């Protein structure tokens, strides 16, 4: 999929992970957690977490080579506020809904910085 997209568009700049497998947003079609089988759960694990892992791993080398790229994993609040029993996706999407922001400013020579340096060292 990544290779085909790269051939068609020239490069990939963004990946959005938002996969669900055979999921019906219909409460009458959802099983209660007590009725789930491991196969039901594993199908969602493979589609959601494994899918995001595989797509991200497939594109990461390209992002490194082009020195740019963005990976977004769509989360959900269904594990916190389920409107119907979506047990099959709740935990997997919870794992993907972590945001990471790293700020790495350069040190600035200031009174505060000098004071912190003296306290630490």
UniProtKB/TrEMBL annotation:
Domain of life, per lineage: Bacteria
Enzyme Commission no: 1.1.1.100
Ion transport found in the keyword field: no
Coiled coil stretches, renumbered: none
Keyword Oxidoreductase appears in the UniProt entry: yes
Keywords: Oxidoreductase
Database matches in Pfam families: adh_short
Protein name: 3-ketoacyl-ACP reductase
InterPro entries in alphabetical order: NAD(P)-bd_dom_sf, SDR_fam
GO molecular function annotations of the record: 3-oxoacyl-[acyl-carrier-protein] reductase (NADPH) activity
Transmembrane feature ranges: none
């Amino acid at each position: 999929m990544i290779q085909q997209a790269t051939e068609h568009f020239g490069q990939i700049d963004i990946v959005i992970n938002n996969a669900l497998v055979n999921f019906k947003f219909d409460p009458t079609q959802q099983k209660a957690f007590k009725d789930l089988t491991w196969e039901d759960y594993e199908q969602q694990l493979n589609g959601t977490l494994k899918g995001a892992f595989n797509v991200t791993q497939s594109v990461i080398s390209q992002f490194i080579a082009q020195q740019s790229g963005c990976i977004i994993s769509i989360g959900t609040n269904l594990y916190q506020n389920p409107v119907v029993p979506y047990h099959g996706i709740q935990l997997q999407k919870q794992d993907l809904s972590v945001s990471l922001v790293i700020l790495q400013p350069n040190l600035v020579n200031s009174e505060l910085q000098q004071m912190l340096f003296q306290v630490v060292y």
